[in-house]
Amino acid sequence: MPSILIVDDEPGVRSALGGVLRDEGYEVDAVDSGEACLERLGRQAYDVVVLDIWLPGMDGLATLARMRERQIEVQVVIISGHGNIESAVRAIKMGAFDFVEKPLSLEKTVLVVRNALRQRRLEAENQALRAKVDAPHIMVGESYAMAKLREQVAMAAPTNGRVLIFGENGTGKELVARNIHQLSRRRTGPFVEVNCAAIPEELIESELFGHVRGAFTGAVADRRGKFEAAHGGTIFLDEIADMSLKTQATVLRVLQEQVMEPVGGSTRIKVDARVLAATNKDLTAEIRAGRFREDLYFRLNVVPIFVPPLRERQEDIPLLADHFMAMLAREYGRRPKTFEPDALIALQRYAWPGNVRELRNLVERLMIMVPGERISSRDLTFLDPGATTVLSQAPPISASAPLHDARDQFEREYILRALAAQQGNISRTAEVLGVERSNLYRKMRAFGINPPRKVDDEEPA
Ligand SMILES: Nc1ncnc2c1ncn2[C@@H]1O[C@H](COP(=O)(O)OP(=O)(O)OP(=O)(O)O)[C@@H](O)[C@H]1O
Ligand SMILES: [Mg+2]
Predict the structure, then answer these.
(1) Which domain holds residue 27?
(2) Residue ranges, the chain, pLDDT below 70
(3) N- or C-end of the chain: fewer Cβ atoms within 10 A?
(4) Ligand 2 center to 13 CA (angstroms)
(5) Which atom belonging to ligand 1 lies closest to the Cα atom of 135?
């Protein structure tokens, strides 16, 4: 139900306008000052604020200015005193949707509110679409492991080389593949995904290479295959360990000869598609067991990229949780909830067998299920840290790096963890670490750490 907040110091306006808007089916609250309005907006999301210009204390324009400063997303309808067009115009310039003049016509006001709501819905839809288009490709994370991964992606992308992406379920293998495509010269070409596990064995060849009419029962028309669809772009073969040996042989031939034959056809089609592949299985074990062709493995594995499990980069968990919260809130048109520090610790303690995908799903569930604006560890009691209390483990540091690098790496990880534990508040982090705030800033800059989130009460040193 759309929600409206009326801000007017006249009790008569509050009750009359409140009445007609409720009759329209809106949820209506009313307050009598700019201060009370801001306080309300800090606690609850509204769709439209009907704001009187003349108010005792902070006036309407000042209130509007504060709302803009705080980036509160709400449509504002101004009630301006008779003959006070200038302020109304100023309010519009500051982003108000429209204004109505006093003495108030209730009918006109209802109409303007209705339009403001429609505008708000359009904007929300627009944002949701944008969130869907942009967000899936951002790789979030400041851990050393993520930095390495980004580096590998950036190095592999511009080459035309085949990349084999390893990693457990839900670690972000597809995301890596999409990033490689986007950073490559083929970015304007298609990105075609084939989930080899999801396609029935007898259809996979037709799926990959297409078929001609009559090639088999049900082939009622010619059909283009995925390899052809990916011409000039990238084909992503997901879950390759699930291909049958027969399909593996055919794929191998395509990779060797760069040509393919549609099922039942006699013409050979030249294809120019870069092949990226992914698996969550241990392919060397599959090869030993005779389930995967070694020659195909070598063909695909020109550049191997390993996506680490989430439990090995737990300092990224708060960043990912915030990222998913913001993204999903936009998608659902809701206000994002905040994670309390104890909730973030609980999230970091959990072992995440389903990795980033599991975290994403959990955030979605919390956004829907938790009633308030804040998520605390009490909302997470169902997360069982189980046997793997990863927090107690040392960060994964290779023992072959020069001492100086290892020290930097440790220091970076350590600062990131401390920041995460303090929810990105730099003053508090500095206090916990026992260093000057300016010193911490310098180190963060040196290690390329961005403050994980904006904190109102802080300015950069
Ligand atoms: N570093 C990251 N930053 C932001 N989102 C991420 C990150 N890693 C993964 N995701 C998101 O997590 C979800 C799972 O990622 P993805 O599908 O790429 O994993 P996968 O390894 O291919 O999983 P599966 O093995 O289940 O196929 C997706 O919604 C993806 O966008
Ligand atoms: Mg996948």
Answers:
(1) 3-134
(2) 130-136, 385-401, 451-461
(3) N
(4) 57
(5) 31
